[in-house]
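Might you be able to check the backbone structure tokens below? Thank you kindly.
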Amino acid sequence: MNIDRNLAPPPLLTLLAGLPILGCMVVMGLPAALVDSPFLSFRVFYTLAYLFWIIPLGAIHRWLWRRGANGWVTAAVLLPASYAMSVINAVIALEWLASPESRARADWTFVFGGLDGCWLALIAFSGLQGLVLHRAALRAEGERLRAAAAAARDAELRALRYQLQPHFLFNTLNAISALVNDDRPRDATRMIARLGDFLRTTLEDAPGHEHTVADEIALTAAYLDIEKARLGERLRVETYTAPGTLDARVPYLLLQPLVENAIRHGIAPRTAPGTVAIRFEHAGSELKVSVTNDVVEVTEGAGGVGLANVRARLEALYPDRHQLVTGIEDGRWTVRITMPWAPVETSIEAIA
């Protein structure tokens, strides 16, 4: 994964990586404090010096991180820098804290050869800060990728929704043309009016890709008004909603392509009246939706663009958490959909 180095956490957060090292230094100084050792002042000084030096050392580390320095370059800069800080500590401690006798016995090895001047602590801090920087950047990158995936899914769902409109509009205009050719101007005028009402509703930019079952039924009823203008008494509709299902969430325009297929391939070719039955039922953590229609003869129904569109939107909204089954049941063409149960106050992401 390519990490965006600009996603580094704030400086205060990375400085907190030094707290475990500080705790170790305090624990190491406890024996000297308990026995009133002359080395206690050195321990206190090195601890305070560590707290001071991690600020510029951490700033250098973050500067290298943002510029994409690799581990070898970072180590080549931080090791000498932290060593220089340790040498400065040793010089100050020797000059201000050591007794005259100790200063007289001290040689260059005390200043340049020892690691007690908090060099190891500064190295450990740099390692921990590197882990914090990397982990925080990975988390931020993960959030960015999730947001990008959500935006891509939103664009896909909108494209699928818009795919329905020209397909539906083409079929409806063909039906209006047929009414005109059959010298049924009143029915054609009524169908045009219903079409205008339906398009005003569906072309509105809905804020999400889901709404309630009640809203979906109302939207489908507006579409059925268009078809009834063409088919009249030949089209019968039965709708059943189990208690509590009206507030469940379903994909926007879930029913319209299924009902359109049912009418186009099942009801319209018949000379006798036919029925389209719509059912919503609640079963545990699932919402079950079915659309059933009479057919001219018992054959496999046609899916077309509408059914493929519904499949694609269900997969985008509920990946691996839905089922769509089609087939002949009791001499009628049936589409059965199972999806997660989500009341209106619950977003579908919350049940993922």
In short: The chain has a mean pLDDT of 78. The two ends are 25 Å apart (CA to CA). The first strand starts at residue 210 and ends at 212. The first helix runs from residue 11 to 15.
